Amino acid sequence: MKIAVIGGTASGPAAAAEAVRTNPSAEVVLFEEGDHISVGACEIPYFVAGRLEGEQDLQVLTAEAFERTRGATVQLRHRVHAIQPAQKRLVVEALRFGSRHEIPFDRFILATGARAHRLGVEGEEAAGVFTVRTYPDALAIKRWLDTEPVRHVVIVGGGFVGLEMAEATRDRGLRTTLLEPEGRVLPASLSKPLSAPLEHAVWEAGVRVRAERVTRIEADSAGRVRAVRTDRGEIIGCGAVLVCIGVTPRSDLAASAGIRCHPSGAVAVDDEMRTSARTVWACGDVVAVPRIIDGVPVHWPLAPVGRRTARVAARNASGARPPDRFTGITGAIAVRAFGVEAARVGLTLDEANAAGFDALAADVQYWSRTRVYPGSRPLWARLVVERRGGRILGGELVGSEGAALRADVLVPLVAAGATAKTLAEDLDLVYNPPVAPALDVLKVASAQALRHMSGEPGKRSVRPRRGR
To answer: Which of 171, 253, 369, 393 has most Cβ atoms within 10 angstroms of its Cβ?
Structure first.
């Protein structure tokens, strides 16, 4: 059996390695059009900030090491132009030589990932305007900031990557302005009540968040960016622009092969990660995956999901019996920036209501450790539950410590369909004064949710004392 894996980063290498493990007699070849197969994209902000030692810190695994330890063949600088499932072949170009070949394969795994959104405005091609997605992006941004006389950076997009890049440029001593139409950070992931502590930390760090959209980019006579124009008629002078407005699945190859795609543009797959073409599987950032909560397919481009889907696709493409199945995602994500952690699991209240749930939210403020223990910090939580039955649909946590790992506590609860009553009354969470209080913020939030469900007035959340 010959299996072609198309694409690198997180899911491609994971799929190739798993295919070899599942079927050691298979010939597995990974095609990557770039110079590296496995790069840590999430480390880019910390590389730009100078927190990582060098370029090698972004490379998770070299092609040579991968071939030696995983057993698959790697073809770098090879661009796949077409998949022809019916003919069982790929059309591949060796970029070093500009030559094209048709190569026979029995099965195919698409791991083509996603590309960064562009602004689509005049002047976007000016030097000093960057997306933040790939290894070349990381090198180009750092080189520009290291060598050009940049004093002010404009970051477009207030999501997780935009927030991390704002901290990176601030850490480099650069004046930073963040443009986000919602006028606040993480608008798609945090509710307004919980975003306030993070917004305050951003403001205290000197980063200004403006509710504006870029309409044009101005360049100087040498073609370097000098300013952005916004929909409010403002002209913001700058020496660099970082575009962080999300990604689009790279599903062109699949679409041109007649493979069905989801309305989001991602490749549609079943729970075996098989596409509408019988001999083609897909995984990673190019696919739509179902939410465990309601089964709705969504595009969730994160490395942990990429690796999970890669393993399922590879096992099934390699002939595993019984077939492996992907169970869906809870949707967990977190960030730490400007000294504050923010995490979200499952559905927000707006998403829950849009999905047809009769949902409510309980907001509380409590402590990260026992209140009187030195170093205890405020911790904010929101729990989203069904009004009838109390099933936990999602949660948000924000604080200077303890938010992200408490979000991890919610992941199995959301996946299992647990209720607010289970969390409030049936679980023993860790209690140790230097680590967590006797009554954890998650239990406080779940008890508040139960009061809301019963129609009782919610008790006022505990307020931290000044100076704590």
So the answer is: 393
Give dist(CA 52, CA 311) in Å, integer: 29
Q: Do 267 and 281 meet the contact criterion of CB atoms below 8 Å apart?
A: no
Identity of the residue numbered 75: Q
Which tokens sit at 442? 């998650």
C-alpha distances in angstroms, 220 versus 126, 229, 238, 239?
A: 9, 14, 11, 10
Please report the DSSP string for 247-291 in residue order: EEE--HHHHHTT--B-TTSSBP--TT-B-SSTTEEE-GGGB-EEB
**What is the enclosing helix (H) or strand (E) of 455?**
none
Strand-pairing partners, residue 361, are 384
Q: What are phi and psi of 59, to 5 degrees?
A: -90, 115
Using CA atoms, how far residue 238 sits from 105, 129, 168, 225, 242, in Å, is 50, 10, 16, 7, 11
Average pLDDT for residues 45-64, to the nearest whole number?
88
CA atoms within 13 A on the CB side of 310: 30
pLDDT confidence tier of residue 60, bands split at 50, 70 and 90: confident
pLDDT tens digits, one per residue of 72-110: 999 999 999 999 999 999 999 999 999 999 999 999 999
Which element (helix H / strand E) includes 312? helix 303-317
Instruction: Output 458 or 399, whichever has higher pLDDT.
Output: 399
Q: How far apart are CA 126 and CA 224, in angstroms?
A: 5
3-state secondary structure of 347: coil
CA-CA distances (angstroms) from residue 2 to 28, 247, 272? Answer: 6, 31, 19
Strand order across the beta sheet in which 73-76 lies:
73-76, 27-32, 2-6, 107-110, 280-282
Which of the four pLDDT bands, split at 50, 70 and 90, describes residue 206? very high
Q: What CA–CA distances, in Å, run from 286 to 112, 281, 292?
A: 6, 11, 19
Helix-helix angle 11-22:303-317, to 10 degrees: 30
| Distance (Å, whole) CA 211 – CA 76 | 42
Of 40-44, 217-221, 241-245, 299-303, the one with minimum mean pLDDT is 40-44
Predicted confidence (pLDDT) per residue in 406-456, tens digit: 999 999 999 999 999 999 999 999 999 999 999 999 999 999 999 999 987
Residue 61 CB partners (closer than 8 Å, separation 6+): 13, 37, 38
Alpha carbons within 13 angstroms on the beta-carbon side of residue 428 total 1
